[in-house]
Amino acid sequence: MKFALIAEFKPDDPKIAEIRPVHRQYLAELREKGHLAISGPFSDGSGALIVLEAGSKDEAEALVKADPFAKAGVFASYVIRPWNPIFVNRSILPE
What pTM was computed for the model? Predict the structure, then answer.
């Protein structure tokens, strides 16, 4: 089941640039394990969208809490919602 994480960043937080490499490595590991469908920051720098593959909302929450951005407090706030993709570009987001 897919879960959309919508995260907001603290404006101009210097930890974003500092922790980004470790955060991206964590996301790469999630992708390798089949837990990451797609991710990326919003172009205005306000946050990010991360679509996770997890068995339950609790599992998705655990994946988020283990993210270096979450541990460092880069996420000012976030929401996790179950997501049901209807139209999918298979080269971007496989079922």
Answer: 0.88
